[in-house]
Amino acid sequence: MKNTTFVGVAGAYKFDENRDPIKAAVILQIKNGQQTYVTTVNP
Question: In terms of Cα–Cα distance, which of 23, 25, 27, 2 is closest to 13?
Answer without folding.
Answer: 23
